[in-house]
Design a protein that fits this description.
Chain lengths: 427, 307
């Protein structure tokens, strides 16, 4: 293409009157535009297969999953009559028509075996209500009007305004309630948003804990990595490459292997405790408990994430010439001033890159807290796994995941702004 | 890290303290990985050094946990170790079949990740590439998105398209693992393409080479080190991945990390340590391979600039 346009330019300069054109008579402008768009298409074509693959099998599934956090039709799809009553009577206390709708839906639910699903959906908003639905559905076929008294005779709790509020909010398939729950909030019987009672506030504190944890881990990594990266950067290349193996080997070693080794080291009957007891530093009766709590999680995670801090710091420090610090010293700066005002500012890009990367990876960590965290070392990822695998409250898991993902993507965007994704280095 | 001659005594002390600190950090990095190696030869079912091991008494060491790796799950572990014993082991031992599964999944996901990732990296490093920044951000994102979110999303997606019924074994895990490996391939291949001289491909084209010939004999040899180290990264990612496997694999699709996870959570036995030792040796080999590739790539760069 370059040849063609060069020819065009020559012809153009000879015949100054006509607009620039290629040898086959097209105007140079269109020929160039065509060539450029062809090159663009070619580049895009190379990326397209992977982009489609990622969009279809990664971005789409996550989007679908996040949709669950606002969409749950277990109640509205299986209780159509009562849902219609809620639609027609906004804010009204349940009357006989509502109870009759309830009974007709429960009869249908018994036939379709969906009472458990419905109860589970309402149970998310009002704990303990699942069994009421299954019990009432069992008796629904025999109920006689007036339905209000008949239903209340099964269980007086059916008159509870909180239950009706929960059913009303479940009657629309789209709801923000899971986000409210993820932020430790709920709706009172009047429909106002209030914080849940003190003893049941768990998520906000765990989000805070996850972020504080990640911050602490990032800070420890930075403090440990900075002198090491500096040492590696100032040593001759041969020696630093040799020492670099000590950083890269953990990087290449299986995560589970490293977590296992920390379990072995930090157990109550483990190597560290045994060594401390043998040297007399620790009394055999009260060995340090460093495993299955926050201490163990922090130690193991610092070990796992430390290479991600050392490598970007090293990449930034290596090209820094020692002349600047020497010049500062020769002009009378103390070594601390020279470090603070001359060396440190030059390493800021490395600090930013390493700290952001470590923080992003730490916030979403799952494996290590799950294995060595015990009760106090759990992070928000572990709650998502709990709701996925044990409580089966998938909408709640999706709401927590959405909040976590939003935080991570914000940090990722920041990383791209400050460091640039192209600058991620591995080894 | 040499000390200038004008250093004050305070600076000298600080210099030495810093050296000791660095050594401690190196110890912190490497000790936990090395500690499992001697412990895996423990004759007793403990996770700590016994008196006999410390005094280097040969009876304190044994290969029993390595033997346990082979015999767990066998039909007749007590039989004489002839050819039928080895066949039994190869077909039924739990850890062996987990290793086979891990290898199959790792191989195919690496193949997929490397092919698609290299193509995309070639496109991304072209100066004409439109919307480069946003596309790059999307393609790297599997590395950044918390693994539990990826696993949850894939769990629902695969169950909605009923991937288990398609009749292709391991398909779900292979696709998932290749997604996780792709960012590494893109990063390493684009890194080798950073200083790439595009006049080389133009020269080849002007001499009449087809695009395919140009790619095969000009571009490929130059990006090969990046491709291989990207492939190794992708393989290790797959070989070490446990969360996605737990969420989407069927119960009979056991992989080494999943087996280890179960071993750690339920009945931790020193057999785990012998697996860990084997994996450490494995990662040493991989690291050596990557280092050799990096040096080769650096040498080629140096040769380029010297011409």
């Amino acid at each position: 293409m370059a040849d063609l346009s060069a020819n065009g330019a020559i012809t153009g300069s000879n015949v100054a009157v006509t607009p620039l054109s290629t040898t086959d008579g097209r105007s140079l402008k269109t020929a160039l535009a065509a060539a450029q768009s062809r090159a663009k298409r070619r580049a895009l074509l190379l990326v397209l297969p992977l982009l489609l693959f990622i969009l279809i099998s990664f971005v789409l599934p996550i989007g679908q999953m996040l949709l669950r956090s606002v969409h749950n039709d277990a109640f509205s799809a299986n209780m159509p009559v009562l849902s219609a009553w809620f639609d027609e009577n906004p804010g009204k206390a349940p009357d006989e028509a509502a109870y009759s709708a309830l009974v007709s839906d429960l009869r249908q639910a018994r036939a379709d075996k969906t009472a458990g699903l419905i109860g589970t959906r309402v149970n998310y908003d009002l704990a303990g209500s699942r069994s009421m639905f299954t019990a009432a559905a069992r008796k629904a076929p025999e109920l006689e009007p007036p339905y209000r008294d008949a239903v209340l005779a099964i269980n007086a709790d059916w008159g509870n305004p909180a239950l009706w509020q929960a059913m009303r909010s479940a009657s629309t398939p789209y709801t923000a309630n899971f986000y409210l729950a993820a932020l430790d909030m709920t709706r009172d019987p009047q429909g106002n948003i209030v914080r849940v009672e003190e003893s049941r506030r768990i998520y906000v504190s765990h989000f805070v804990k996850t972020f504080v944890f990640s911050g602490v881990i990032t800070a420890i990594c930075l403090i440990l990595a900075y002198p090491v990266a500096h040492m590696l950067a100032t040593l001759p290349l041969g020696k630093s490459n040799l020492l670099m193996i000590l950083v890269l080997l953990p990087f290449w070693t299986s995560l589970l292997v490293r977590t296992t080794s920390w379990m072995v080291l930090l157990q109550e009957q483990g190597v560290v405790n045994n060594a401390l007891v043998a040297t007399g530093t620790v009394d055999p009766a009260n060995r340090l408990s460093m495993m299955y709590n926050q201490t163990g999680t922090v130690i193991a995670m610092v070990h796992i994430l430390l290479p991600f801090m050392i490598l970007p710091l090293y990449a930034v420090m290596r090209p820094i010439k020692p002349h600047y610090v020497r010049a500062a010293r020769s002009l009378g700066a103390s070594s601390w001033t020279a470090f603070r005002q001359v060396y440190l500012p030059q390493t800021l890009p490395g600090i930013g890159a390493g700290a952001l990367l470590v923080f992003i990876l730490a916030v979403g960590y799952y494996i290590t807290p799950a294995l060595v965290g015990g009760a106090s070392g759990q992070m928000i990822s572990n709650f998502i796994a709990y709701h996925m695998q044990s409580s089966l409250n998938w909408s709640m898991a999706a709401a927590l995941a959405a909040i976590l993902l939003a935080a991570v993507l914000l940090l990722y965007w920041l990383y791209d702004r400050l460091v640039g994704i192209d600058n991620i280095k591995l080894g | 890290m040499s000390l200038p001659i004008y250093a004050t005594p305070l600076e000298k002390t600080w210099h030495h303290i810093r050296r000791i600190l660095c050594c401690l950090v190196f110890l912190f990095l490497i000790a936990p990985i090395l500690i499992v190696i001697p412990l895996s030869f423990n004759a007793e079912p403990y996770f700590t050094f016994t008196q006999k091991m410390l005094s280097l008494d040969p009876t304190g060491f044994s290969l029993r946990w390595y033997d346990a790796l082979l015999t767990t799950g066998m039909h007749a572990p007590e039989a004489a170790r002839g050819s039928s014993w080895w066949r039994d082991m190869w077909e039924h031992a739990q850890w062996i079949s987990a290793a086979k599964n891990s290898m199959i999944v790792g191989f195919f996901s690496t193949l997929l990740a490397t092919t698609l990732g290299t193509l995309a990296a070639l496109g991304l490093s072209r100066p004409e590439m439109p919307a480069r920044r946003i596309i790059m951000a999307v393609l790297i994102s599997p590395m950044i998105v918390p693994i539990i979110i990826t696993a949850t999303g894939l769990f629902f997606f695969y169950s909605s398209i009923r991937i288990q019924d398609w009749g292709i074994p391991y398909l779900g895990i292979i696709l998932a693992h290749s997604i996780l490996g792709i960012p590494f391939v893109i990063i390493t291949v684009t890194a080798t393409l950073v200083g790439f001289d595009h006049s080389l491909t133009r020269a080849a084209a002007s001499m009449g080479a087809t695009p395919w010939t140009t790619f095969r004999s000009i571009t490929l040899p130059l990006i090969l080190p990046g491709m291989i180290s990207g492939a190794l990264f992708a393989f290790v990612t797959s070989f070490d991945e446990v969360v996605v496997v737990m969420f989407i694999a069927s119960p009979d699709e056991q992989t080494i990390p999943r087996q280890m996870w179960n071993g750690i959570r339920e009945s931790i036995s020193p057999a785990i340590l012998s697996v860990a030792t084997i994996l450490v040796v494995f990662s040493v080999l991989l690291l050596t391979a990557v280092e050799l590739l990096r040096r080769r790539s650096e040498k080629m760069r140096a040769a380029d600039t010297s011409i």
